[in-house]
Amino acid sequence: MATVVHQEHQVLTEAERILAEASRREGRKNALPPESRKSSNRTPVGLAWGLLVPALVVVAIVSIFPIAYAVNLSLHSTHYLNIGSFVGMDNYGKLFGDPAGLAQIARSLIYVVASLIIAIPLSLGLAHLLNREIRGRRFFRVLILLPWVISQTVAALTWKWLVNPDYGPLGLGHIGGGRLDFLANPVWAMVLLIVVNVWISYPLATILSLASLQTVPAELREAAEMDGAGPFRRFLQVTLPLMKPTLFVVAIMLTLLYFNMVTLVYTLTGGGPLNGTNVLSLEAFKQSFQFFNVGVGAAYSVVLFIFNVVFGAAYIRLLRSDSND
User: How many other CB atoms sit within 10 Å of the CB of residue 139?
Assistant: First the structure.
């Protein structure tokens, strides 16, 4: 018994010694001037800049420099890639002062807005279906992703074969005794372009919507159901408000994708017929790499960049105002 008491006394003495040593160290730290304490907790300036500068250099190379170079090209006459004299806004005048250029802007807006109106509700509906406990759910998830992994060129060629009125498997050459040729009519060509664009892009929106839908607490939907809310009302008042941030992100991503789409349009319709599907992105490509009017093509690219910034800023503003409410 005496041995146990002696050991406990030694443990308490050692603990008191450790606490006293810690108190002395804290006292010496507090005795330092405020400037010394701040400098000891401050990250070295050289280290901070050493970590920041490489990231700034990469951003400047891949983002800032190409934008500045395109703006500079758009303000000069060019011969191939050789920059000539300063022409000011003349290259932009070829876009905004020409009815064909204004028609290209209108077609681009129709193409983007119509694709968004179809793609986002479609992805929401598919996400709700895939979120249910159904047989073969994993198979359907893989099936929905297939259009996303197919290249735009392959998708365009496949759809051109499908809708061909002569030998296409859809048999569009004999509908009601008539002949439906999507690629021979400007309106139908734009409809086909929008459909194919939605087909290759809805998987991304569906996967993001499904991921957001799975974060909605089931308790909220169950509570709304107990209060007498039907499926549609539960979706509008419970599910949709919680999914809005993700839907805004999806809208931004799809808008940027649609405005900058070149390969699909070029392969599927080539801008025809009668320039009925000649959107801004395709015209920028043609001016730069077919007609070698690089200055005019740069002006088209700058206008596309402005559209992307405006739409992106509008989405972000709506997202912030919604979160503040």
Answer: 9
